[in-house]
Every structure is written in C-alpha cells, then in structure tokens.
Amino acid sequence: MRALWVHHWLKARRQRQAVQRRSPSHRALRAGIGLALVLSLVLALLSLTLAFAYAALTADLPPVEALETLLAPSTGTLTQPTRFYDRTGTHLLAALDGGVGARTFRSVDPGSSEAFSPLLVQATLALTQPDFWTSPGFALSLDPAPQTLAERLVSDLLLWREPPSLRRTLRMRLLAWQTVTHYGRAQVLAWYLNSARFGPQTYGAEAAARRYLGKTATHLDAGEVALLLAALESPALNPLDTPEGALERQRQVLERLLGAGVIDLPTYEQARQHPPTLLPRREVPPASTDAFIHQVQAALAENYPPEVLERGGLRLLTTLDEALQQQVTCALRAYFQSLGAVAAAEDPTCEAARDLPTLPSALWPAHPEELAGGAVVVDVTSGEMLALVEVDARGLPTSNLSRRPTGSLLTPFLALSAFARGMSPASLVWDVPPTSDESPLATSRYHGPERLRLALAGDDAGALTRLLEQIGVPTVAQTVRTLGVPLTVGDAAAFLTQGAPLTLPEVAQAYLPLATLGLGYRLPGWPESQPLALRRLEGSDGVLWMQGEPAQVRPLISAQLAYLVHHVLSDGEARRQRLGSPDWLDLGRPAAAKLGQVADGQTAWAVGYTPHYLVAVWVGYRPGAGGTALNPRLAAALWHGLMQYLHREVPASDWTAPPGLTLVNVCDPSGLLPTPDCPQVVREIFLSENQPTQYDTLYRRYPINRETGRLATAFTPPELVEERVYLVVPPEVSAWAAQAGLPLPPTQYDNIQNPSTNPQVRFSQPAPFAYVRGTVTLRGTATAPDFAEYRIQVGEGLNPRAWVTLTPASSGPVEEGVLATWDTRGLPEGLYILRLTLVHLDQRVETALLQVTVDNTPPQVEVRLPAPGQDLLLPTNGMLSLYAEARDAYGVRRVIWQVDGREVGENRTPPYILVWKATRGEHTLEVLAEDLAGNRASSGVLRFRVR
C-alpha cells in the first residue's frame, strides 16, 4: 500500500509541474531569466570591449606631470631656448630666442607683482574660452581642433608627434581633463600664457611683450593687450613681419573686447586713437653660421614641426666645424677682395686665404661689387657637412641659401646614365652642330668624333646634347633622384645650358656617391637630399630624439659605375686638352673635379673631392644685378684654395678601383681595338663585361691617285696609286667635317675611264664601286655585228696580278641580260675587279671593267641594355632608353629595333640608342644590324620586364 501511495504522489506532482510550466507566469519567468543572462553577457562583453578600448586609448599616453617638467618657472626645460652647438658641443652657434634672451615665466595671480597684467588674463579668457573657470577642461566634441585652453596646452606640448585622428582627439581631451583635475585651472592658464605661440620664435606673452613692445607683460594697456591677442590668434600677422596687418588685427580685437564687455567705450576710444608703439625690427648682421642653422632647421622641418624647434628646450649638436667655418668665410672675403669688389684688408688669422691662387686681371668681372658666392665642405668619410656659407661681394654672410642654375654641372650624371646602359668613357660621340648648315665660323666650338671622356671633361655641347637626346632627360633626372637629390628639368637644351636650380648642399649630396664609389650616408629623420648636418638632437624632455653618429651606410649605385665617372673627373690631362692651363682643378694629389657653366654666364660652379673632403663652390651675380659672362675658372680658383687649405696636413691617398673593371688599349676616338691604321692608341677603362672585342673601323686605308687626290680605280695607272688612311664620318656630319677642315676620304673616283666606251661592251649590274655578297648576278651587254665570244674574269685588288675566269668563253651575244653569276662565298674580302672581254671575229678585243668590294661578313650587334631577364623600372614619363653596339669592317648602314616582334625604330649613326615608349609587362627585344653590302646580323631575342 505504501508503495502504491508513493507512486500516485509522484505522478500527481509531475502533473502539477507540467501545468505550471504551461502557465503564462512561468513562461515569463523563464524568459526573464534568459534575457537577464543575455544582458549580463552583453554587458560583460561591452565592459571588456570598453576596457580594451580604454587601454588602447591610454597606451603610452604622456603623463600630465611632463607639463611641470617643461614649464616649471625656474627649472622647466622650455625656459631655455633651443640651442645649436658645433660638432664639439662647446661652441654655441645660435639660440632661437627671438632676440629677447632667457624666458621669464609669470603667474596669473593678481596679487603677485610678477604676474601677468590682469587685463591680459581677462581678455585672453574672454576671446578664447569664456567658460574657463567652470569648464572641466575638455569639450564634448569630436572636432580634432582644440576647443579649450587645456586642450591647446596638451596638444602643443604633449601630443605634437601624433598625426590627426579620432584616437588623438580622444587622448587630447582625456589629457586636458587630467591636467585640470591634477593641477587646477589657474595653473593651466598660467602655463598656457607662458607657452603659447605669438609669432616666429616668440613663445609666451612675456616674450611677445618684450619683442613687440619693448616692455614686460605685467602692465599692459588695452591697446597693447589687443595687439598681443591679435598675434596669438594669427602668429603670421605679427608686428615684426607685418606691422600694418598686425595693427589692423589689433583694431578688430579691440572691437571684440568692447563687445565682450572686457573694456568700456572710453577705454576703447583711447586705444583706437593711440595705437601701441611698436619696436622696430632689429637689424642684426647675419652671422657666418646663419645659413647653416637655417639649413638644419629646414631639414628637421620635414619630420618636426617648426614650432617644436622654436618653442625651446632642445639641444642640437651639429656637424659644423666652427674653426673651419670661419676659415671658409674669411677665404671668401679675401677672394672677393682680390677681385676688387671691396678694398683689400689682410686678415692675419685667415690661413685659408693664403692658398688662393692669384687671379689674372683678364678673368676679373667688369662689376665685381655685384658678385656673391658660397662654399660647402663635406667630410667624405662620414657624409657630414663641416662648413657652409654664402657671402656677398663685401664678404658679409647671408642668412639663407640661394638656389642657382647648375648648367653643365649635371653632365657627370648624364655620363653615369650612359655607363649604366653599356657605354664607357671610351664610347664614340660626335661633337658636331645640330644642323649641317651652320656657319663655318662656328666650327671652332666643335671637335667632331671624340671619346665621351673628352666630351665630359670639356662640356662639349654638341656631343653631350646628342647623347642626352638619345638617353632622355627623364632618365638622367631619375639617376640624380636615385642619389637622393630631387631634380626636375625641361628639355635637353635646358638641361645642358641651365641645368636645375640647386643649393650648395644638394649639389654636394649629388656628387658625394662619386667620391665614396657608390655609397650614401643616411640618417633616419634626415632628408636624403642634404648632407648630414646633425650629430645629436636632445628633446626638451631630455630624451635623445636623433642620433646621427655613426650614420647608416648603404649603396646607391654600383661601385663600378661610380668609378667610371670618377675616373673621367679625375683625368687632369683630359681637362687640359679642353680647358687649357692653368688647371686650378689640379691639386697635385689624387682628386676629381668638375666645372659648371651656365649659358647666361651669370653663375660659375666648381665641385670636386678627394678621399677625404668634398668641396662645392659657386660664384655669381646677385639676383637682379647681372653682368658680363663669368669665366668658370673663377670658381675653380676659389675651389683650389679651399681644397689646398683642407689638405695641408692630410697625406695624399688614392681610390682603389673596385673589381669588375678592365683597362684596355683602344683606338682614339672610336674606343675599339686598335688596328695598324689607328693613328693614336690610348688606354681606357671599361666594365669587364663591356670591354671591346671588335677592331677599329673609323680609320680606313684608301687607294688614292696622288695627282688628282681622288679614289683610285682599276683604270688609274699603278704608278700613280698610293694608300692613305682617312677618318670615316657618317654622311650626316660630312658637311660639317668638310667645313671644319677635317681630312676626309674623297668621295669621287678617279675620272680616268675605260678606253672603250662602246655601249655594246659594258656592265649594268652591280653598280660601280658597290658592296656585294654571296652569289652575285652580273648583268650587262656583250654584243657586236662580228661577235665571236665573251668571257668574264675577276682579279683581287685594285691592280690584279692574276685573273680567274668565271665562265668559259660564250658563243652567244647578250644584250642587257645575265652575263654570269659570281659566287663570292669563301673569297677573301676586299676590293675586286671584274673584267668583261668581247672578242670579234677578226680577233679584235674590247674590255669593260667593274670595281666592287666583297663583304660576306655580317656586322656584329649586341644589346647592352637591357640584359637578358632584367627588370627595368618604368619612369614617370613612360620613356625607356635601350642601348646596343654594332660594328662592321666596312660600315653599318642601319640598326633596326624590334620589340615584341614589331619594328619600333632604327638608328643610322652611333651611339645606337632607342628611346622607347614602354609599357609594363614582359617584352622581347631583337636588334638587327645591316651593313653596306646588305648582310644582316641579329642580337638574338632576349626577354625583359618593365615594372
């Protein structure tokens, strides 16, 4: 019974529970519990997300205590201006203090005698943050611009490194709240007024009052307060730089102060009628280091806002050698004195002036008082700039560097681009006028065929212009940009005559990789276009911001290519051949140098280096002056003196040629292997893979009738024939060569003709003096009323000693038809005489002679750029330069370029360069060379990529 009762009880219980589960109240309870669980989970996830977000927001958040370190009245780092020191750290070069000296920090407590003017405090708050005393320090806004004084303070001093973003905006407002909470509003206001920017190098209201008004900020009237607040709102319109604009802004601020109730109407009228008396700008004579300091500031401005440097507290250890800077400055002064620009006044402390060469009066400009000049010295072993100065003709330093057109100073980088495309210092270039109809009087400016070495040494415009047109200005500009110097130039003519406007440091930076054989010095945070000028930068927080010693070293160009250019620039003999003597670029020790000439003659450059120092100088007329064209030797003399001073106690040393270069004897000027006919053999340097393998074809031996001076023919009496060696020029420059008096082979053949002029015995094909190859079809006429037979014989040379019969005697006449075929394959190449003999029935004989040259050897052709499988970078203008070499014993008629199986261009004269409108992707290239006989050769198909 008990067991049955328990069973019924359990069953009834289950039924009651089932009924309860089906009831609305029970279902609601369960839903509520589920919802609570979901909400709990969401809140947990939200809390976790917010925690992570807050952690990310506050990660590496600057502590607000840093403001006290920066702005403590007597110990704060911003109480001291930014200071620049020389490389030793012992000589102060400059301080960015705006001319007011050490900064004085003031309070906002009106009970203090050293407090800011109460009117200044009240007006500042009225115009910038009227709710300052009740604000929590931050604005409820996502506007990235600071809205409160606390936000401005932390934005300028704590978060200046961070780029604009939502994260920065939130961090700024968080820091502003923390600052107000931690230090109070009065302290925030005092810090703001002591650190806000009122103009360039003018931070804090006290500095602004002293610099603009000549008084302290403790007692200021309404007009003076309005002036300072106008500068606070628009620092660029400050009373020193724009006095009229500052006073106009001051009147506007006065109206706003009146409207805000800060001043009453009588005070307003008084301030309007009696504007503040502004201090005039102090004209401080520029120091010799000003240009250097400004250069450092400009370089740092690429990574640090100018306000950070000007605000103060930084310590910069520069690379400047102060003693050397003074020597360079006084040497420039002495140099201009020697030109008669100012009265000479010998400076016994200027040792560098003693090394300046004496300038002949013929080099003196007509108006030396209008000149200016500059110099930069760079340590080749470290890439550091040791001295930089520009002066006027009086020898007074200037504050800012000028950009000067470089002219031909950039031609070494044209050569560098050419060498990268397979050319060499020995490559043949043609220094001739752009057109053949130029006056003969102008031919003295041109040198005809020459090696690229001589064209570069002498700035031979004709040769360099032709080369630049083939390689392309964008290619050369890209080469210079590879060295770190931004370069934009116009057409080829402008490149050679004007160049690009560059500063002295930029020129030095471009040449430095030539002195280091391809290496460049880099410092993170320092622009690549400038030599290193900073060794150490300490922040206002005492932390090392930048360490410039030692600098990073990395290759910019291959050592072999840099050495090829260097080898030309160090060739004093090549310079003297073009520029004559005295050669002030010769130091009596291993050195390389280049003069720069500008078309208008208003600027002359000289740049050069040893393994120890690089010096670049310019001499020119100040802007707007102008004068007679300057001789580039003026710059060479100044460069010579500075280099001699620098190397007084430096042992002479030379560069070691890198592996991969070869010295080869070549024929001048073709740059090919010499033959017995080559009149001058020189030793030239090549990349090992590009050394010549072909023999000279520029000088050829011709048989000449010594009486007529014409080319001898088979009809010229042997006793009148002599061989002479001539220089062969392309047809397009032959007119100029004749005008210039260059000995050229005669183009006309001897007029001694075949005694038989019978039209019935003659050759009609090939043409007289033609180049032939392979199997030659001989056409012509051999007929007569009493015809018996004809035969054709061939003899080698101009006056054959033996004749070979091509065909047996023929019994049938021929009239303008095929006389015979001649297989020239296997014959020695050169001059041959074909003789057609007609025999009459009465055994009378008539002959006709034909002179031809057999050439069965195809030309040689090789692609130098690109190499098989090479990746080429597509320039911004889409033009790529392709380079090939082609040679033939008798002359190349043309070179044909085929890209992707399609002909895209041809050359008729060397150098064989194609400027090709390229497209990205995989490509094939084949170059065909055709000689005068019609033989063709192929470079083979190579594949390359443009990316």
UniProtKB/TrEMBL annotation:
Q: Quote one Gene Ontology molecular function term.
A: serine-type D-Ala-D-Ala carboxypeptidase activity
The terms describing its cellular component in GO are: outer membrane-bounded periplasmic space; plasma membrane
Name the Gene Ontology biological process terms: cell wall organization; peptidoglycan biosynthetic process; proteolysis; regulation of cell shape
Q: Which UniProt keywords apply?
A: Carboxypeptidase, Cell membrane, Cell shape, Cell wall biogenesis/degradation, Glycosyltransferase, Hydrolase, Membrane, Multifunctional enzyme, Peptidoglycan synthesis, Protease, Transferase
Identify the InterPro entries for this entry: Beta-lactam/transpept-like, Glyco_trans_51, Glycosyltr_51/Transpeptidase, Ig-like_fold, Lysozyme-like_dom_sf, PBP_transglycosylase
Q: Which residues form the Glycosyl transferase family domain?
A: 148-257
Record's keyword annotation contains NADP: no
Major subcellular location class: membrane
Q: Known catalysed reaction(s)?
A: [GlcNAc-(1->4)-Mur2Ac(oyl-L-Ala-gamma-D-Glu-L-Lys-D-Ala-D-Ala)](n)-di-trans,octa-cis-undecaprenyl diphosphate + beta-D-GlcNAc-(1->4)-Mur2Ac(oyl-L-Ala-gamma-D-Glu-L-Lys-D-Ala-D-Ala)-di-trans,octa-cis-undecaprenyl diphosphate = [GlcNAc-(1->4)-Mur2Ac(oyl-L-Ala-gamma-D-Glu-L-Lys-D-Ala-D-Ala)](n+1)-di-trans,octa-cis-undecaprenyl diphosphate + di-trans,octa-cis-undecaprenyl diphosphate + H(+); Preferential cleavage: (Ac)2-L-Lys-D-Ala-|-D-Ala. Also transpeptidation of peptidyl-alanyl moieties that are N-acyl substituents of D-alanine
Q: Where in the cell is it found?
A: Cell membrane
Keyword Transferase carried by entry: yes
Q: What is this protein called?
A: Glycosyl transferase family 51 domain-containing protein
Q: Origin organism of this chain?
A: Thermanaerothrix daxensis
Q: What does the organism's lineage look like at the top?
A: Bacteria, Bacillati, Chloroflexota, Anaerolineae, Anaerolineales
